[in-house]
Amino acid sequence: MIGRIFRRLFSGRKFSLKKAFSVERLIGLALLAGFIALYIADPYPVQFARVKTFDMYQRFNPREIPPLEKQPVTIVDIDERSLKEIGQWPWSRVDIAKIVINLIQGGARSVAFDIVFAEGDRTSPPIVAKTAYGLDDATRAKMKKLKSHDAIFGDIIKQARIQKKLRGKVEEIGLVILGQAVEFREVQNENAERNPPPADAVAWIGLRKGAVKPTAALPNFIQMVRNIPELEDPALSRGLFSLLPEPDGIVRRVPTFFMNGENFYPSLGIEMLRASEYAGTAAVATDIDGVREVRIRKLPKGIHRITTDPKGRVWPYFSKRDYSKYLPAVDVLNGTFEKSRVKGKMIIVGTSATGLLDIRSTPVESFIPGVEVHAQFVETVLANNLLQRPAYIKGAEIILLFATGLIMIILVPWIGAKWTLGLFAAVAGGTAYSSWYLFTNELVLMDAGFVVVAILLIYTQLTYTGYAREEAQRRQVRDAFGFYLAPAMVEKLAEDPTQLTLGGETRDMTMLFCDVRGFTTISEQFDAEGLTTLINKLLTPLTGIIMERNGTVDKYMGDCIMAFWNAPLDDEMHAQNACIAALLMNDEMVPLNDRLEAEAIEAGRKHIPLKIGTGLNSGEVVVGNMGSEQRFDYSILGDQVNLASRLEGQCKTYVVDIVIGENTYLRAPDMAAIELDLIKVKGKTEAVRIYNLLGDQNVRETEEFAAINTLHSEMLDAYRGQRWDEAKDKIIGCREITGNFKLGEFYDIYDERIVDYAANSPGADWDGVFVATSK
Questions:
Q1: What is the overall mean pLDDT for the chain?
Q2: What pLDDT does residue 207 have?
Q3: Where are the beta strands (DSSP E) in 136-213?
Q4: pLDDT-based confidence at 521, cuts 50/70/90?
Q5: What are the distances in angstroms from CA 124 to CA 145, 146, 568?
Q6: Which of 125, 152, 508, 579 is the most buried (most CB within 10 A)?
Q7: Confidence at residue 286, expressed as pLDDT on a 0 to 100 scale
Q8: Cα Rg of the chain, angstroms
Q9: Helix (H) or strand (E) holding 563
Q10: Of the candidates 372, 251, 363, which has an alpha carbon nearest to the alpha carbon of residue 323?
């Protein structure tokens, strides 16, 4: 391909503005501009295709599951077994409190709930006392005085604290984080609240002048479902466990913060991270495009920087579901779990039970508990395994699309689709590899799919448009040459129209002119319709012979045929092919006359045999499309063409069937030909040597031809030496051996000349040239 490109570069072709901005290139440029505009607009179908590509990356190469001892999160799972042994959900808050107690005693760093306790526990003694049937008054009174299960659970939450020296003093820090849910549209829910209190210790940082406010970037909810006050007040903090699946239902990105008006509300994962740093503050940092990162201050020092997308979402690098991090809730309630499973770990209480409807889909799992998403979010943040799609990668994709698209637009029409297919494969493969490399090594998401598809469509458009243009050229060639060339030659030329140089070029060619002798007398036997039929019967077989020998029929001029060889397709044997065609045309006259005679007898009219005279000449001529912008023909011009026409006229003068010029004679040395004369044809100032074509190579090798050729040459030598008696004797000898060559009338001409020259000497300086007086 490189060699072909260099040949194109240095082929000496002149620059053409029309070719540089051809139709296919203009369409390609329009497509490229459209793709860039589409990329910048980024409609949902483009986003969908992009994230599906990134999903595929994660499915092929999911995040490795860390060893159990290095996992920062343990899930206390309300699973099917726990529901079966403890009972249907919701459970008593006393049981939940026991679970928290056992977790804290086991050394848990924090306990978060992927559950909202929006209503009071209906199993609390005071509530049962009001609704139970058959209780005596004393028992009912005692039950009303007992502490509610919610109050018991609230006390446990309040007591779930550790002492930590922070900011130079010892502080008590809570360990329980409650979950909350939000609605993004107005729904009928008595537990939903429109203006909940804001979160504590959250700030906004504008990274530069003109940075957008979080309210314009973060998801804004309408209602929140909160926990009952008995549980919410003593809790360390609250986090929103609501996720925002994309339209296809897959959770790819996890929100970090939500907004309600001007107030911030952190996600459950952010609160778990903040709690693990012992209640440090959190901040949302924005720039002119949206959210840039979330910062969580560590105590006593340091900052977690969590890179987000402009909407404040993070892109976890998901792993397969890790069953080892799941701890059945019933085991925690019964205290039958290994303490190492919770010691020093962040605990998140959630459910995998199908009936509790907290099943999600991620890029690597079609069915996964929602609690797993929060756990993996925390894992990827702490392990610095978040996927990223930085702003510069978008710029790089646009540059790559523009550069490769432009290269394709330049090269495909220039060097062809076949050779640029390798270039497209290299671009597509390189882009795909770069995208995969960035994902697996840098955790950077590059959209290779859009670039590859866009370049493929541009390549396809350029290929199709070029193909359509070439088909139009082929159709034009077939229309132009279908009646003048053999079908095989037409197809060959149509396959490669570049062999046809439009506008004219100089070529060495052989021209043929063929005319019917005595046609005027013959035409008198027919009316106009009959004469047309006769001409068609003559020209059809003669044309077929020319085409079969790779000739091109230039035009018909009444009863005359003009043809040529070595254009538009190359023919190194053009002189020989033309000679053979002329011989075959003469041979064809015998069966043709037999058919015409039979038709004449049947019609009761006189039959006059058709005879043709053929002139051949070779030499350099101009060939190409000749004419005007309104009408043109593929034809030839030049002095050698005129000479060929004059030679056809000399068939009548010398009473022979085929006259060829010296150039043709020299270019077809295998043909059987004898010299006729050295003449000046009409319109020419220089003498030309002409020959009579008698046969092909087989004839040339016969003893008969060798004998007549030798004696004939001796006759011409004596004639030009003005040895008239010797010349006459040689003619007598030639007549005796002329055989099938039918040269008797030709020798009559020389007999007359010799008699005339003997009586009227041409002079001592005569060069043997005969001046023709007719065409």
A1: 86
A2: 84
A3: 161-166, 169-174, 176-183, 192-193, 202-206
A4: confident
A5: 11, 9, 103
A6: 579
A7: 92
A8: 51
A9: strand 560-565
A10: 372
Residues in CB range of 20: below 8 A, 6 or more apart = none
Residue 588 confidence (pLDDT) above 90: yes
CA angle (756 as vertex; 679, 774 as ends), nearest 5: 35
User: What is the C-alpha separation between 203 and 221, in angstroms, rounded?
Assistant: 19
| pLDDT at site 503 | 60
Q: CB–CB of 768/719 below 8 Å?
A: yes
In this structure, which long-range contacts are made by residues 398-403, counting pairs with CB atoms below 8 Å and at least 24 apart in sequence? 398/36, 398/39, 398/40, 400/431, 400/451, 401/32, 401/35, 401/36, 401/39, 401/450, 401/451, 401/454, 401/455, 402/32, 402/36
500-669: CATH topology is: Alpha-Beta Plaits (3.30.70)
Neighbours of 622 (CB within 10 A): 15
CB 119 within 8 A of CB 228: yes
pLDDT over 50 at 10, yes or no? no
Q: Which two tokens stand for residue 276?
A: 């693990």
Whether residue 405 contacts residue 282, with contact meaning beta carbons closer than 8 Å, is answered with no
pLDDT digits (tens, 9 = 90+) for 160-183: 888 776 666 767 788 999 999 998
Measure the CA–CA gap between 316 and 727, rounded to whole angstroms: 111
Q: Does the pLDDT at position 15 exceed 50?
A: no
User: Does the pLDDT at position 76 exceed 60?
Assistant: yes
Q: Is the pLDDT of residue 627 over 80?
A: no
**What pLDDT, on a 0 to 100 scale, did the predictor assign at position 1?**
43
What's the chain's length in residues? 775
**SS3 category, 161:** strand
How far is residue 350's CA from residue 352's CA, in Å, rounded to a whole number? 7
Helix pair 744-759, 639-654: axis angle to 10 deg: 90
Query: Confidence band (pLDDT; 50, 70, 90) for 630?
Result: low
Tokens of 677: 């004369």
Q: Which two tokens stand for residue 253?
A: 């990105």
pLDDT at residue number 250: 93
Residues 298, 299, 305: CA angle, nearest 5 degrees: 10
338-342: list long-range contacts, CB under 8 Å, 24+ apart: 339/106, 339/107, 340/69, 341/74, 341/106, 342/74, 342/103, 342/106, 342/107, 342/108
pLDDT of residue 18 exceeding 60? no
Select from 270, 373, 327 the least CA-distant residue to 103.
327
Per domain, the residue ranges of the chain are 2-60+394-477, 68-384, 500-669, 693-775
- DSSP state letter for 442: I
Show the tokens assigned to 169.
Answer: 């003093």
How far apart are the C-alpha atoms of 650 and 635, rounded to whole Å? 23
Give 383-423 as a DSSP string.
TT-EEB--HHHHHHHHHHHHHHHHHHHHHHHHH-HHHHHHH
Both tokens of 150, joined, read 């919610």
Distance CA 85, CA 81 (A): 6
Which phi and psi angles does 560 have, rounded to 5°? -105, 140
Judged by average pLDDT, the poorest of 86-95, 134-143, 531-540 is 134-143
Are 365 and 65 in contact by the 8 Å Cβ rule? The answer is no
Task: Dump pLDDT digits (tens) for 600-622.
Answer: 888 888 888 999 999 999 999 99
- Amino acid identity for residue 319 in this structure: S
Whether residue 17 has pLDDT greater than 60: no
Single-letter code of the amino acid located at 187: V
pLDDT at 4: 46
